[in-house]
Design a protein that fits this description.
CATH class of the largest domain: Alpha Beta
Largest sheet: 9 strands, parallel
CATH architecture of the largest domain: Alpha-Beta Barrel
Strand order of the largest sheet: 5-4-3-2-1-13-12-9-6
Structural class: alpha/beta
Number of helices: 13
Oligomer: single chain
Number of domains: 2
Length: 493
């Protein structure tokens, strides 16, 4: 009897311990974006998450490879519904039922995915959308909730709406003056009330980087957690960084509509490393280290001392993501496209970031501008436009990691980006006889500029077919013109 009692106690203790680890008491949360021409395989990405202490992840869409890889991983998942699906889901509850069946119930039952949240839309009230999704978000939220209940998942899975911080403002310049934007106040009130009734949190995305990038008068040090900028005094509260002030502005806005205790998740926060003068390794490391320190210390804000889940944005770089907001959009990852570490981060407890393991690459060869080709060749400009309309050339933009290359190196970078994106096919390094293949890495010595070799997705068992390059034409127009202008300017000197 004594031995049986002891065994039961040990078993119970192990269960409690394993549950605590699964719930990620000491874990991190992050966003896993999948807009890549050559994505890091799902199984490798999940191992990368677990080995670095991430036990919560947010997906922007129900990506099959990601969800299958997350099955039985012990990682809690928030799965998103893209904005372009909101109208159909809002207008027809059967569309919501079908979406939940295919993208939630299916992966829970067949793959054992631990889905905890469904994110309805992604920043649907963003000012730049000019009201396109304002009317469909709330009814879509209602229909998804009804679909979850019908599927028997109403208690297990909560709904939420990830919103950009531009849904609220403060006319007084301090957090206590926070209020929702007049044009979305009624919709926000309905959404918050509905979430409260169904025990769902509100999710907010906060970007100190964007505050700095969009406002030349923004005090740079206020964007960081250990900055020396003058603090903002709001009554008895002193704010030393924009993240705290921004979050508490939302709390004040919620208080004004009667929901001051509404649970809040920080759905996205981070710092990019390229594509803009402020987007660099030094700033990203400084910001994200401060953010991680806060998470480890379980530090909240002045109005919400109890910490909330913070989803770091993002996990890995995405070379096929839209750059409409800016060239930095493809460089938010704390890891490079292949899961290699960009910069060290102290994760607490003596742990630091570790890279992905088992990544297979295409052959070690690059496409560069031929030494015999002339920079005055009239075919050069259209060749560059072709390359950068398909491949990612954002690192060539002014103030970026490859922004100081000469004309020939600029062309080589663009040619190679295209060549790698096209899986190193022989005809992808032609460019009107301006290019050639080399086995010598052309990356400039002692420089942060890298001429990458893509992941060989065909060699990874978890990928069923070779990833086809995605053409990103509209969002690349400004970059192409900017690049060609720099090229022509250099030729005229």
């Amino acid at each position: 009897m004594g031995f049986q009692y002891f065994s039961k106690c040990v078993f119970l203790a192990l269960c409690i311990l394993s549950q605590g680890l699964a719930n990620g008491v000491f874990g991190f949360a992050c966003n896993w974006g999948t807009r890549s021409t050559h994505p890091l395989p799902g199984d490798i990405t999940v191992k990368l998450l677990k080995e670095n202490g991430f036990n919560k992840v947010k997906l922007f869409e129900a990506d099959p490879s990601a969800l299958k890889a997350l099955g039985k991983s012990g990682i809690e998942v928030m799965v998103g519904i893209p904005n372009d699906l909101l109208a159909s889901i809002a207008s027809n509850v059967n569309a919501a039922i079908q979406w939940v069946s295919q993208n939630v119930s299916n992966y829970i039952s067949k793959n054992g995915v631990d889905i905890r949240y469904v994110a309805v839309g992604n920043e649907p009230f963003l000012s730049s959308y000019k009201g396109q999704f304002v009317q469909s978000t709330y009814p879509a939220l209602q229909n998804i909730q009804a679909a979850l209940i019908k599927a028997g998942l109403g208690r297990q899975i909560k709904v939420t709406v990830p919103l950009n911080a531009d849904v609220y403002q403060t006319d007084s310049g301090v957090p206590s003056g926070g209020a929702f934007r007049p044009d979305v106040k009624d919709q926000m009130t309905n959404i918050v009330k509905f979430l409260s009734q169904n025990d769902g949190p509100l999710t907010i995305n906060i970007y100190p980087f964007l505050s700095l990038q969009s406002d030349p008068n923004f005090p740079k040090e206020y964007a960081f957690f250990n900055g020396s900028a003058a603090p903002v005094v709001d009554g008895s509260i002193t704010y030393t960084n924009v993240l705290d002030a921004n979050f508490d502005t939302l709390v004040s806005a919620l208080e004004k509509i009667g929901f001051g205790s509404m649970p809040i998740l920080v759905g996205e926060v981070g710092w990019p490393t390229d594509g803009d003068p402020n987007a660099n390794i030094q700033n990203a490391q400084r910001f994200n280290q401060g953010l991680v320190d806060r998470i480890v210390k379980k530090q909240g804000t002045p109005k919400r001392p109890t910490p909330t889940d913070i989803y770091i944005f993002g996990l890995i770089d995405e070379d096929a993501k839209s750059i409409e907001p800016g060239n930095f959009e493809r460089h938010w990852g704390i890891f490079n496209y292949d899961g290699s570490v960009k910069y060290p981060l102290n994760l607490g407890g003596g742990k630091t970031l570790v890279p992905a393991k088992g990544v297979k690459y295409l052959q070690k060869r690059w496409c560069i501008m031929s030494p015999q080709a002339s920079v005055l060749d009239p075919n050069l400009a259209p060749s560059l436009s072709k390359a950068c309309s398909v491949a990612d050339c954002t690192s060539l933009s002014p103030g970026s990691s490859c922004g100081n290359l000469d004309t020939r190196a600029n062309a080589s970078y663009a040619f190679n980006a295209y060549y790698q994106t096209m899986n190193q096919s022989q005809d992808a390094c032609q460019f009107n006889n301006l290019a050639m293949i080399t086995n010598t890495d052309p990356s400039p010595a002692q420089s942060g500029c890298k001429f990458n070799i893509m992941i060989d997705v065909g060699k990874h068992r978890s990928t069923s077919s070779l990833a086809a390059p995605r053409k990103v034409l509209g969002s690349m127009v400004l970059l192409i013109f900017s690049f060609v202008f720099m090229l022509l300017s250099s030729l005229s000197v």
